[in-house]
Every structure is written in C-alpha cells, then in structure tokens.
Amino acid sequence: MSVLWGQVMLHSFHLYHERQCILKLHFSETCKSAIRKAASSDRLMSGQDYEAYSNNLYEKLMCGFLTGLNQFSGAIAEQEVTEGISVANYNTCSTANYKIHYLQLITGYKLVCFTSPEVPSLKNILEIIYSEVIVKKLLMNPDYQIGSPVNDLAIYNLIEKALTI
C-alpha cells in the first residue's frame, strides 16, 4: 500500500521507545526494498528468518542514524532559550529522494516518518499522533506494558488516518 498526497509520498512511520522500534508501518514498496537492500550485504546465519534478520538490522541502522541526527542537529542549531523543560525536539533531514521527520519526546518516545522530500513539516501531525494516539489510546491502556511492541490494529489505523489527512 502506498500513501500519496498529490504527487508526494509517505514511505513509512516508526515508533521507538528508548532504542527499540515498537511499531512500524511501511507504506511503499520503495521502503520495503530499501530495507532488503540494507540487509542483503550481510550474511544470514543458517536457519535464520531473513525477514526478521533484515528488520533487526534496519532497526539498528535507524537507531544509530537517529542518535547521530539528534546530536548533530543539536550541535549546529542555535539553541533557543526556553522557560522550563523542553518536552519535545523536532528535526528533519532531507536527501534528493527522502525526507525524515523526527520527533523525540522527553518520555523516551521517538516518532519517525519517511516521506518524499517535497512534504512540508509534519511536526504538528506527529505531535497529534503522540498526544491523541500514543498517550490516550496506548499508554493509558492498562493492558499495555511500556516499551513492548505494539500489535493493535486499531492503533495502526489511527496513525495511518492521522498521516493521510
């Protein structure tokens, strides 16, 4: 499934808690083939599931990249003086083919969205997804253990709906 906004594309959405990807939605074949390509140069242990192996490598690569992006952008950006504690940090990084929208929250959650480069800032949308879906539907659910993988189809659908508005 591909999500198009006019001629721009949403490739994927990821939710991290600390350094673990707990939810991922891949919307385009481009994204899926990039994951396979990133893992194809590594050797697969005999009997190991290729899909799980490539996803694990991709998640490790993403965690490292996001950590570097956050540190780099913090080092070069002029720091705004704010009153109180900053609860969120939003960054974007663009290439000729992709744009990464990254919202890191003081709670340890990171929302990451890959789009085509023409997509404007998704800061407001990612903040809404966090406050309305992650906090109200996931974290307030007494059955959910913080940091565990999200396997709730209703959560997936709410995130997809927020991203396609």
TrEMBL record:
Main localisation: endoplasmic reticulum
Location in the cell reads: Endoplasmic reticulum; Golgi apparatus, cis-Golgi network
Q: Among its keywords, does the record have Transport?
A: yes
Question: Which GO terms fall under biological process for this protein?
Answer: endoplasmic reticulum to Golgi vesicle-mediated transport
Tell me a GO cellular component: Golgi apparatus
Cross-referenced InterPro entries: Longin-like_dom_sf, TRAPPC
Question: Which domain of life does this protein belong to?
Answer: Eukaryota
Q: Does the keyword Nucleotide-binding apply?
A: no
**Swiss-Prot/TrEMBL keywords:** Endoplasmic reticulum, ER-Golgi transport, Golgi apparatus, Transport
Describe the subunit structure.
Part of the multisubunit transport protein particle (TRAPP) complex.
Q: Which family does it belong to?
A: Belongs to the TRAPP small subunits family. BET5 subfamily.
What protein is this chain from?
A: Trafficking protein particle complex subunit
From which source organism is this entry?
A: Babesia microti (strain RI)
